[in-house]
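User: Please predict the structure of the protein below. I'd like the answer in structure-token form so I can feed it into my own downstream comparison script.

Assistant: Understood. Taking the following sequence of 105 residues as input:
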Amino acid sequence: MDVKQAADAYSAIAGITQNTLPDTNTANKTNPSDASFSEMVTQALGGALDAGHKAEKISTLALMGKADITDVATAVSNAETALNVIVAISSKVVSAYQQIAQMPM
């Protein structure tokens, strides 16, 4: 099985054979000033997940010859940035929890 056949099989299974990608930026998002911390974290996780899915879809399209390598590099870079943000948030949450746990009662 060559790369093109593998990409075709993967895209058939994933249902991403179209050259268009859904716009996830217009989903039901709340105003950041009205959002609770948990809602902001949930939105950040959702955004990172969407960026990862978009990068995967564009990579598959590129393997099929339907996307430019520049688009792939941009999408992967955006996904990497989103993942770094999630890791930073996670580190801060763990650090805050550890500080609270060390406070005298």
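That's the full token string. Residues 3-15+34-101 form one domain.
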